Amino acid sequence: MLSILTINVQAAALARAQNLLTWLLQRDDHVVILTETSNGPGTRHLLTGLRAAGLFITHQPSPEGDRGCAIASRIPTRPAPHLTAGISLPGRAPALTLDTDPAVTILGLYVPSSDRAPTKLAKKRTFLTTVTDTLARLPTTDRAHLMVGGDYNVISRDHQPRYPGFRPFEYDFLDALTALGLCDVHRTLHPEVQAHSWIGRAGNGYRFDYLHAGPGLLPHLAAAAYLNQPRLEGLTDHWAHSADIDIRRAGGRGAGTGNTEAPLTSRTSSQTSGRIGQ
């Protein structure tokens, strides 16, 4: 079972990053997409600690100090530069391919947030457009086993409650992913549930954090949940979002000695605590 988690770390300062690292290592996910990373000591502590625990890290910090995204994997990875080359802010869109069977490619996204300021809207629109264009250029065989996930900073057209402030191009992004055959993992498994992953200042819930899977992974989806535990414990202001996919690792400890396929171990009950069905 391949377990994937996306969590917005809210540019964690060092003290909060230390607690976040403890929580992440206790969970033992195979892949973690970290959104709203920074160039500060908190993000450095998180990535250094995950690397010290044996995880492979993919992260391109912004030279301008922009917020970004990182991927940490317990499974060996190889670069996927074809997914980042055309994206306007590559530090917000790391990509890699996992040593699994079938090989799964992960694209992490931290979409720029925006108020109504023209420069912020343009930054967000350009990023979303370049991501969509990049995905559209991929052969359908490559999209089949693609996972896209992170903090998209958009909501769906039928989001409950409804909010009037989003622009058409923001709604268009989720529509584009669907048109490209990438399914919303949580909505696929829980079609009647309106999930929220962030609470605004007025107490209103928004669903900003997502995982999308290509059609080749759809039959293998086993579970999806939003986890309120990190928000309740003050680790971040977002829910984390997790998914389990029933596939196998292409090589294990015996790889190269005749053992070419090894199962991906499921998490224990203590590692999945804090899951909720929305």
Overview in brief:
This protein has 278 residues and is of the alpha+beta class.
In words, what does this structure look like?
This protein is an alpha+beta fold and 278 residues long. The relative contact order is 0.16. Mean pLDDT is 89; it is low at 252-263 and 266-278. The strands form four sheets. A seven-stranded mixed beta sheet has the order 3-4-2-1-15-14-18. The longest helix is centred in the middle third of the chain and has 20 residues, at 118-137. It contains seven helices and 18 strands. Helix 1 (14-27) packs parallel to helix 2 and helix 3 runs parallel beside helix 5.
Main traits of this protein?
27% strand, disordered C terminus, 278 residues, six-stranded mixed sheet, 18 strands, alpha+beta
Radius of gyration: 18 Å
> Count of helical segments?
7
Q: Share of helix among residues?
A: 25-40%
H-E string: EHEHEEEEEEHHEHEHEEEEHEEEE
Name the structural class: alpha+beta
Span of the ends, CA to CA: 21 Å
Please give the structural blueprint:
Elements: E1 2-8, H1 14-27, E2 31-37, H2 41-52, E3 56-59, E4 68-73, E5 77-79, E6 95-98, E7 100-101, E8 105-110, H3 118-137, H4 140-143, E9 146-151, H5 168-179, E10 183-184, H6 185-189, E11 198-199, E12 205-206, E13 209-213, E14 221-227, H7 229-232, E15 240-245, E16 248-249, E17 262-263, E18 275-276
Parallel strand pairs: 1-2, 8-9
Antiparallel strand pairs: 1-15, 2-4, 3-4, 5-6, 6-8, 7-16, 9-13, 10-13, 11-12, 14-15, 14-18, 16-17
